[in-house]
Write a structure and sequence with these properties.
The complex is a heterodimer of chains A (about 900) and B (about 120). Chain A has 27 helices and 24 strands. Chain A is α+β, with helices and mostly antiparallel strands. Chain A folds into 4 domains: about 60 residues; about 210 residues, no CATH class; about 325 residues, no CATH class; about 210 residues, no CATH class. In chain A, strands 4, 5, 6, 7, 8, 9, 10 and 11 form an 8-stranded mixed sheet that branches. In chain A, a hairpin with a 2-residue loop joins β9 and β10. In chain A, α1 packs antiparallel against α3, α11 packs parallel to α14 and α11 runs antiparallel to α16. Chain B is an alpha+beta fold and about 120 residues long. Chain B has one domain: Arc Repressor Mutant, subunit A. Chain B has a 3-stranded antiparallel sheet with strand order 1-3-2. Classes of the chains: A alpha+beta (about 900), B alpha+beta (about 120).
Amino acid sequence: MSLRRFTHRSQKDNELAEEITSHLAHEQDRNTERGLSAEEARRQARLKFGNPQVTRERVWRYRSIAWIEDAWRDLRFALRSLTKTPGFTAVAVVVIAVGISVNTAVFSVINTVLLEPLSYPDPQSLVQLMSLSAHGSFPMANIPKFNIWHRQTSIFQQVAGYDVGGAGMNLTGGDHPEQVQGIHVTAGYFALFGAPVVAGRTFTTMEDSPHGGHVAVLSYGLWKSRFGGNSNIVGSTIQLDGQPYLVVGVIGRSFVTDAPADLWVPFQFDLTSQDLAHYFRVAARLKPGITLPQANAQLKLAVDEYRRTYGTNSLSSQDGFGVVSLQESIIGDTRFPLLVLLGAVGFVLLIACANVANLLLARASARKREFATRAALGAGRSQIIRQLLTESLVLSLSGGLLGLILGFAGVRLLISISPGGIPRLGEGGSAVTLDPNILLFTLGISIFTGVLFGLFPAVSVSRPNLAATLNESGSRSGISFRSSKLRSALVVSEMALALILVIGAALLIRTFLKLQAVDPGFDPHNVLTMAMSISGDRFQKTMPVAQVIRDGTERLRAVPGVVDAAATNCLALQGGFGMIFDIVGRPKGNAPFTGGAGFYSISYSYFDTFKIPLLRGRRFNEQDDGSAPGVVIINQAMARQYWPKGDPLKDRLQIAPGAGPAFAEPPRQIVGIVGDTHDDGLDRDPMPMMFIPLAQMPDAETALNSRVAPLWWIVRSNVDPHTLVTPITAALREASGGLPVAHVRTMEEIEIRTTSRQRFNMLLLTIFGAAGMLMAGIGVYGVMSYSVQQRTQELGIRMALGAQASALRNMVIGQGMRLTLVGVVIGIAGAFWLTRFLASFLFGVKAWDPLAFIATPVLLSAVALIAILIPAQRATRVDPMTALRLE
Amino acid sequence: MVLKRPPEAGDILQGTLDMLILRTLVTGPAHGHTIAQVIEHTSENALDVEQGSLYPALHRLEDRGWLSSQWGVSENNRRAKFYQLTAKGRKELAAATGRWRRMTRAIGLILGEQNE
């Protein structure tokens, strides 16, 4: 079709008008020839032609794209009508913007964390290998498992192992030593993840074999920051943990790992090792066409292969192997909290919608005569609905645009207060960017809300009783029974939704308070902690580690202000290692071992430094070293669980029974029982724990520990520990021969961090709940003051007939509170059903906590009462004479 | 005076009206009024069309390139817009006439009328 049709419309219309004039003139000429009078000739000509206006309109419409034309007209009208009531428009846009911004913010995070595919090539075929056990699955592996897994070539193209660099590495050889994130990987790692190599190469299989030499691959960031982007870096040597490492390559900037990496070094696994310690992860790429179930089926067979190779005792009967998609594994358990959050902001949006719908209904009632007039002039019902929907869409899209901006500011705020440990957010949330998904989402909910809150009033006013409306006088006649019922329903649902949000918030507040009240079992005040990486060759045996600890402890104690100091391989509240044990002489039945417990290697002053009370027996002392008989201290939880009646101090523990020759050690005498600490987090019951002196660790265990975890120093002071950071780090550097420390934090900071997830949940839901409550309050205020205004005349008559002001006030309050109470009852029922989804967030309170379920409705009713009092008071000030004269 | 609803462009007449206009212009250029009169007379007033509905059709045909137009002076010495058949319009007329013949013949067969 030719575009000519739509161009130069006005010019063509003028031409057509002239053409029609000419036509009429010719017809008139003809009629005059037939002998008609000039007047009759003209009349006949016009009759024969029909309405020239209709002809022009038809051509005009033919030259236009009708719906664009209509939409444009509706839009202009909507803008005009909205700018006439700037107050209403501003309130509505802001309410929608608030509702949409929280949704945009939460969705941005969800989009980045849950929805975006991993940034590696062909991410769908990447899987994480899992160790299955009776207690669930975990993504960790040991060398024997890796050995079996990487042979499953029928399902895997590539298999690679990697750790998360927890131990850190010391980059020395410059002016300032620095602890860096050094990730251990197997040779296939870079190919598996499609890491781009910008210089040099990655590791060869030879380099990833035992005694393959010291080689490293640098990240782009480290290459730039530490080595100034030196183009000759490949082939040069850097100092890592005091050893020279040959740099063989540099990886491109686009390669992002979830635990950020500064450099990579090869694992150099001895694949014949029988070492059963799980300390790294394994990922693999599925062969094309292989599905997850197929891979899992093949791995079931691999379990048999494993048992044949390593003996039936190496894997208990409930254990096995499996795969999950790598994305699933990285997202882990953050999915559910994020979805709950999305549900909560969805409620906020619904409340906002109900609120704006209410405002629009009031506005529409006031405009009833306008619509009746338009209907009388020939506007169809659909045209009126379309007009009103256009208005609400203009509102919601403006609100959406504002909400997008607010939401993007909000998401920064959200990330800044979010607990650590949300995967995939990048450095400071840098991975959260404005992408088409977010724009589409915001556009989608804007349109959805616009239609949702626009449809109620549009449908309710588009069925006007023309004659009645036009004949009614003034603007007070507006509120019809139907629309007042609709408005009440909206207020009731606002109340119910707000109540659910606030009950959720109340439960989380109670949870947080309960957590704050938990005694961690040690005194976190004035304790500074820091990590020292001891991953180098120097610390492969226990003796040198013990030496550094002894020296360090003495030097730290000499620092003015320091009360005591100690070292440990696990930090309280941070979680630690687990270990199996046997109680010597106690029958184990069918089980391969007596039990499992948390396993800490500590220096002798650990309990004093943390002020963990000794309940029985003795603490460790300096004499408990490698030359002394083995000793172990247990906590109260362990004593209760394994010696409900007996005396633990009479027993000996065999730690890590059957863990292989390298870890073999004689049984240890239990010499003391200490108080429980909440090391797995404040929300968990203390678990059984065993402590052994660091100085008594088997060498193989020290070597492994040094490799996977840093050594933690803890220092108690009698002044603000922040003021002692410089002398403390200096003392430790001297004691260790120049090793730097990292992650310097006080124990109180760590305590705050462990409850940050609960704090975050509480804060957000409290904000959403407060916003919901405020909007619900505004909603009931709006309905009641509108109703008072509409009934001015009725109230005036009542007054004139002698009604007391207080009676009128109570009448209005009664009506408002009835709405509130209906909303509250529905809200309580809804909350009973919905708070179960919060159960996993709660600590120390039940999902149906009576306090929350009583206090919250009272609070909400109080807010509603305040909102209702204002219009109720206004009702008492109605002057009968004015009210009656208004007619 | 009984108001009759004028046939809309979408009614049965649309295609027919187009064809009649093209047919009228085979003999030479004409302005709107002439075209209306010719159609009226030659169809023995069987097609009772408001003259106004001619113009949307004229404009549509011109947009399609079947007609061209030019302002000129009429036999009554008045300014008028004259329409003229283009080459494309002639082709279309031939095609439309063919289609029409085939259709009327088919309808005739169905209604059991004798062929001419």
